[in-house]
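Just scan my protein:

. . .
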Amino acid sequence: MNVVSITPTHNAMKATTNFIGAFLCLALQVSNVFGQSAVNIQGRVVEQNASGKEEPVIGVSVYWVGTNSGTLTDSVGKFILPVSTETTQLGISFVGFNTDTINIINPTEYINHTLTSITNLEQVEVVHRKKTTNVSYLNPIKVETLGEKEIQKAACCNLSESFETNPSVDVSFTDAVTGTRQIQLLGLAGPYTQITRENMPDVRGLSSMYGMAFIPGTWIESIQLNKGAGSVLNGFESVAGQINVELKKPESAENLFLNLYGNEGGRVEANLNLAHQFNNQKWSSGLLLHHLHNSVRRDRNGDGFLDNPLSNHLIALNRWKYLDTNGLVFQLGVKFTLADHVGGQFVVNRTSMAPSLTNWGMHTKIDRYETWSKIGKTFNDKPYKSVGLQVSGAQHNQNSYFGLQQYSASQSSAYVNGIYQNIFGNTNHKYKAGASLQYDDYQESLNDTTFDRTEVVPGAYFEYTFTRGEQFNLVAGSRIDYHNLFGVFVTPRIHLRYAYKEKTVWRASAGRGQRTANILAENNNLFASARQVIIQGDNTNKPYGLNPEVAWNYGINVTRNFRLAYREGSTSIDVYRTDFENQIVIDLDQSPQQVVYYNLQGQSYSNSLQAQIDYELIKRLDVRLAYRWFDVKTTYNGILLQKPLIAAHLAFVNLAYKTPREWKFDYTLHWQGEKRIPNTATNPSQYQLNSNSPNFITMNAQISKTLREKWDVYVGVENILNYKQTNPIVASDQAFSPYFDATLIWGPVFGRNTYFGLRYKIK
């Protein structure tokens, strides 16, 4: 909550903007936009800030004078309104600003309107609530949008660390050596979640394990998260859900943004974002730079292994954007990533790329190059109609060793997606159609064994959207694809939304997902053990001789908004089930000296239930409470077992408080229940683990302060209670024995961590 005492100029408008948008959008937006007319007028409403720069205004009333037809501007100040047959007078009004009337002579002309403030009001106090996480009331797909302020509630050095205050996503370390974090959604590992950057494929294939660390948190404008089946436009690979990352836009980002970070583990980071909009206002460019460095050797638990890997990252992104008032949009971007990680025993050589027979070490070098382009066209006389083309390419190279095992890989990828959008009759009936092509060439080598393949997948899709006022939506889509190794397959998906009451929304979804499991790249962490890799595939040309993973996902969720004691709140319940037709089973139970990969023979499923409440408990104190239950089981060697290292129960508390003087306090608590640990009974007694982990609590907190609108200073503590998994590395005293295993991680590994940082920005 922000409370400000102001005169109704720029600041009054900004404070009122989100207040109006939050309360009125639910009532007016949809019914008139999706009316009977097939001709619409569109435009954008802005205001000038203190520096003279235009900023969008959210929730402005745009209406035909003397009628009941109207709408509100969206999150970027834009509006679309059916042309009236009764009048040509268009009204534009907003609290704290003069009401304007425009005579519309040419309905196809795009309107750019700047509000002017009322100057003769007395001083007023404006109180507004702008949620840091939002769920759209009108979207048939339940999408949680995490804004920049939500992401900044924690250190959030990269995407994998951006979900600390979100109970839907679990983040945990994959092992006690590499320092890699992996997410889980609906109880399923990260690769089952499709991760896109601005709706284009991003973290997949060889980058599945490390790719989230290559998206710095300071680059992120927002994150859109949805569970279960997604849109067929984005491909066929989504099983558990989708995470879409929106990077800061060059036309709206700060001209300069600097972030410096350091923690007691020796990790330091520097981020510099630059943006410039050229004089013609059509071209803009952004440059995003990131550097991470850690050269401090620490071993606080005395097991002889580094607590954190020695790391060095250099990441740069540059993109150009062209935006024309005639509806033409063009983007071009390039990204370069260089990453170097060294881990293992305390005395490991950080420069060598060759395994050592005396000191167990891990060394991974990755270089990745990406480029992408987007071009789109909307039509001013038909704003519901658009055409777009997405093109991207990537080259990913990895060279690494783990102990005595050597793993190297490369991936060359290309992606093309053409999209056409239009209506049937009127805007109650929309459709999207298109075609795509995904190309991947993999070359992998594990010791003396190679695993090379090329995948080419052309496909086409169609998606229909039906809208009936604000009460009902249906999105039904399907795509057909041809995989050069697996043949033809169909991906149907459907989403339903029903507004049972004014503030209660039911949603349901169902759909199919299919993906190729990159069993070595997605499980690099298992190389941090002495386990022998056994792949029980056939002799076909399928990847690793294994079948594709195929799953069906079904979900129901209900969201209820409420007001209690003049403050807003919401509750939600999500229920999802994922059924696998085939899954590549990762069997750690047959022997603690082996990891066995094979096609599923039996059942494999995930059931998920989550209940959550968000409420402003007292003035400016936001509370988020959640409980989640997982039932995740897979058939291992003929026996249906709970999937290892996944807690069946989780409780979550997040508190966020902001003072009128720009102090922010954030606190998060996680309670995790027991997790099943893979069988170690055949190990010597000193290297055996219990069959289940204990339950435990972790707490994180952060305090930040804004100084003169340009500076932010923040300090935080992760794992306040210093809770650690005892002896996270099995046989750490015998690193080259067959019992060595650093992958059986069920809890925190590194203990308490204090960090400090500052941000500086110029608009």
